[in-house]
Write a structure and sequence with these properties.
Elements lengths: L2 E4 L5 H9 L3 E4 L5 H7 L5 E4 L7 H5 L6 E4 L9 H6 L3 E4 L5 H16 L2 H10 L16 E5 L3 H12 L3 E5 L5 H5 L4 E2 L2 H7 L2 E4 L12 H6 L4 E5 L8 H10 L2 E6 L18 E3 L8 H20 L4
Parallel strand pairs: 1-2, 1-3, 3-4, 4-5, 6-7, 6-9, 7-8, 9-10, 10-11, 11-12
Helix pairs in contact: 1-12, 5-7
This protein binds D-malate (MLT).
Length: 306
């Protein structure tokens, strides 16, 4: 039996999977870092989502840790090198969030295109600013998807239903693979220059933002930027300036460089719809990722070890 510290809320189905295999769960979701640090002293496994930073200090607090599971795509909040040095396996849940992230992309896109938040506020306040809220249709618009993995592909499939033209940029995808989705592969610069709407679906790059002032300058005037991937991909100051000047026509932003984005210029930028990192926040996705990560942890402890 392993002692598994769960540091962030995961679906009950994941907890039941661990319990059914006889493991003990220490559920610390919502508890401060100090509680986590002391509980790790006797823990064999740790499960996180995206808010807890699993840095070298946290890893050092768990001398018996053997596996860290992330209930989400990627492992960017885990210091993978520190984990490797401590001989700790790191696993994630790359599949379960795909549809939720793709659907959130369209939720934000349609909210930007049809001014949904401003319309809602104007009905509630009695202002009824119908004349100010002329939107645009998705049909016939060119959607540029940067990062054509599982989520980018799911976005492309849904864009086809809206009769959008879809292009993508991804250094590890071939033109043939993209064509199977009815998508034309482009260089990043071509995509930036040609797209009416640009949507990011790639992992954090760990260095300078992918979209800064120079990249925004290459985009069509009035283009819309969507980010349901990682906050660090976008220079928020440059994006807010482009929205304010009218260089960009709108933005749908689910993720931020710091979360919550206290003081971010995006909080007051025009034509911007913001969400508090809801890309994976559906009942369905949370069950899927919790079970996906729990099953890997169960298998890990069930496997014979030398
Ligand atoms: C993901 O990486 O899948 C999500 O950002 C995880 C989350 O919502 O916590």
């Amino acid at each position: 039996m392993a002692r598994i510290v769960v540091a962030e809320a995961i679906a009950d189905a994941g907890l039941s999977t661990l319990q059914a295999a006889g493991h003990e769960i220490v559920n610390l979701a919502g508890k401060p870092r100090e509680a986590l640090l002391s509980a790790l002293a006797g823990a064999d496994a740790l499960i996180v989502r995206s808010q807890v930073q699993v840095d070298a200090a946290l890893i050092a607090a768990g001398p018996q840790l053997k596996i860290i599971g992330r209930a989400g795509v990627g492992i960017d909040n885990i210091d993978a090198k520190a984990a490797e040095r401590a001989n700790i396996r790191v696993v994630n849940a790359p599949n379960g969030n795909t549809i939720a992230a793709a659907e959130q992309t369209f939720a934000l896109l349609l909210a930007v295109a049809r001014h949904v938040p401003r319309g809602d506020a104007s009905v509630r306040s009695g202002a009824w600013i119908r004349g100010e809220l002329k939107g645009f249709e998705l049909k016939g618009k060119r959607l540029g998807i940067i990062g054509f993995g599982r989520i980018g592909q799911a976005v492309a499939k849904r864009a086809a239903a809206f009769e959008m033209e879809v292009v993508a940029s991804d250094p590890v995808v071939t033109a043939q693979q993209a064509a199977a989705f009815g998508v034309k592969l482009q260089t990043l610069d071509q995509l930036l220059a040609d797209s009416d709407i640009i949507s990011l679906h790639l992992p954090a790059l760990g260095d300078a933002p992918l979209i800064g002032a120079a990249e925004i300058a290459k985009m069509k005037r009035g283009a819309v930027l969507l980010n349901v991937a990682r906050g660090s991909l976008v220079d928020e100051v440059a994006l807010a300036a482009a929205l304010t000047s009218g260089a960009l026509g709108g933005a749908g932003i689910d993720v931020f460089a710091a979360e919550p984005p206290v003081g971010s210029p995006l909080l007051t930028a025009p034509h911007t719809v913001l969400a508090p990192h809801l890309g994976a926040q559906t009942v369905d996705a949370q069950i899927a990722v919790a079970v996906e990560v729990a099953e890997q942890i169960v298998d890990f402890f069930a496997a014979p070890r030398a």
